[in-house]
Write a structure and sequence with these properties.
134 residues; alpha+beta; Ferric Hydroxamate Uptake Protein, Chain A, domain 1; three-stranded antiparallel beta sheet
Length: 134
């Protein structure tokens, strides 16, 4: 069928063009590095324990390197918190469990009590975050 016949029948000829996106081996290596950086992940181990209420949760997640710990926490479990201008987010409840009277939710990062609020923690490497009431 000729091009004129195709056009008259409502069918249009399609021409596909292919162009290599790789100009040189060094450009290919640079592009490969960008792909790896864009998909780099770390593992967050999240442990939540409230011995008085009986809550025990132990979970692992693969998250994008550089993720904000508060956002990952919110994406993983139900979180209640209050925000204070100087301190940031103060977690008052996790998984539907509020801290018992006279206690607060506190957290450790890689076995050390955190000296910053959860929203200031950035996940740059495999990390364990443990939440406890005390």
């Amino acid at each position: 069928m000729s091009a004129r016949a195709l056009i008259g029948s409502g069918l249009l000829p399609v021409v596909l063009l292919w162009q290599s996106s790789v100009a040189s081996p060094s450009a290919a290596a640079a592009d490969a590095g960008k792909v790896v950086a864009a998909t780099e992940h770390v593992v967050l181990t999240l442990r939540i324990t409230d011995t008085q209420g009986g809550l025990i949760l132990d979970a692992k997640r693969s998250v994008a390197k550089g993720s904000n710990a508060l956002q990952v926490l919110r994406d993983t479990v139900a979180v209640k918190y209050k925000t204070f201008p100087d301190l940031g987010a103060f977690v008052t409840g996790l998984c539907g469990v509020d801290a018992p009277p006279g206690m607060v939710w506190t957290f450790l990062v890689d076995t050390k009590w955190s000296k910053v609020g959860i929203e200031r923690v950035t996940l740059e490497q495999d990390t364990v975050i443990e939440w406890k009431t005390r």
